[in-house]
Amino acid sequence: MKHIINLYENINNTARNNSDCPHVVLPEEIFFTISIAGVLENLIVLLAVIKNKNLQAPMYFFICSLAISDMLGSLYKILENILIMLRNKGYLKPRGHFETTADDIIDSLFILSLLGSIFSLSVIAADRYITIFHALQYHSIVTVRRAVAVLAVIWTCCTCSGITMVIFSHRIPTVITFTSLFPLMLVFILCLYVHMFLLARSHARKISTLSRANMKGAITLTILLGVFIFCWAPFVLHVLLMTFCPNNPYCACYMSLFQVNGMLIMCNAVIDPFIYAFRSPELREAFKKMIFCSRY
């Protein structure tokens, strides 16, 4: 968010005076390389589902939604680097109308990436829950039409929320709303997990006979969720510390890792496609056919 980045730049010198921690700076080439890899990998995931009719099912639509979120996060950094390069070359007027508008659009992509990831993981969790505990009714409950409708609503809400957050990014309630969505998603998925395990204990025999294969999907979700938390939580914490204790020496020491936290976000987009390929034989086979140009 532009408000967060500007706030970071404004308080950085003051915070550094209160802390002995050096500011960690990473080469822009690292960000650019990771971002390009993230876009290409998630684009392959989308193409694999589009080209393979066997993968055109609700579960893979939800995975595509998460892939789009990851791709937007990578695209955000690529566009930001291009904008900075054009400004440094003198093609853009610093703080001009075009740069300000472009900043707002790029920031919207960043927020959209986080919101899209949160809601995509939540809907994947709900899909796994239905798959495991309502296996016989799954295809009547989760239809392609309903899945598309749910994703349309999710991305409409995410887009509107992203634009709104950029417009009001200078206000504290916006920052609180932005950061609160992260723990709310964790609470929602945790509640599903607790309910799943309680039901699994009381219906262990039924679960083992009906949904043993579907438990693999729950494990995949757990891995995706763990990677998402590992990659995004440091940045969310950074935003909170920057907003509420910018001059505290301990907060300032953590904020010196700003670029490291940003790199973790970029890595999330690179790691997720490998999880899909490792956990899903169908996607893995589709990737092989695409890479080696085989016919479906």
TrEMBL record:
Domain G-protein coupled receptors family 1 profile intervals: 41-276
Q: Which residues cross the membrane?
A: 30-50, 57-79, 105-126, 147-168, 180-200, 221-244, 256-278
Recorded topology in the membrane: Multi-pass membrane protein
Q: Name one GO cellular component term.
A: plasma membrane
Q: Which PANTHER family match?
A: G-PROTEIN COUPLED RECEPTOR
Location in the cell reads: Cell membrane
Record's family? Answer: Belongs to the G-protein coupled receptor 1 family.
On whether Lipoprotein is a keyword of this UniProt record, the answer is yes
Keyword annotations for this protein? Cell membrane, Disulfide bond, G-protein coupled receptor, Glycoprotein, Lipoprotein, Membrane, Palmitate, Receptor, Transducer, Transmembrane, Transmembrane helix, Ubl conjugation
InterPro entries assigned to the protein according to its UniProt record, in alphabetical order: ACTH_rcpt (IPR001168), GPCR_Rhodpsn (IPR000276), GPCR_Rhodpsn_7TM (IPR017452), Melcrt_ACTH_rcpt (IPR001671)
Assembly and interactions? Answer: Homodimer. Interacts with corticotropin (ACTH). Interacts with MRAP; this interaction targets MC2R to the plasma membrane. Interacts with MRAP2; competing with MRAP for binding to MC2R and impairing the binding of corticotropin (ACTH).
Q: Lineage, please?
A: Eukaryota, Metazoa, Chordata, Craniata, Vertebrata
Q: What does this protein do?
A: Hormone receptor primarily expressed in adrenal cortex that plays a key role in regulating adrenocortical function. Upon corticotropin (ACTH) binding, facilitates the release of adrenal glucocorticoids, including cortisol and corticosterone. In addition, MC2R is required for fetal and neonatal adrenal gland development. Mechanistically, activates adenylate cyclase (cAMP), the MAPK cascade as well as the cAMP-dependent protein kinase A pathway leading to steroidogenic factor 1/NR5A1-mediated transcriptional activation.
Which superkingdom heads the taxonomic lineage of this protein's source?
Eukaryota
Asked if the Swiss-Prot or TrEMBL record annotates the protein with the keyword Heme, the reply is: no
Task: Give the matching SMART domains.
Answer: 7TM_GPCR_Srsx
Gene Ontology molecular function: any one: corticotropin receptor activity
Q: Which organism is it from?
A: Myotis myotis
Its recorded name reads Adrenocorticotropic hormone receptor
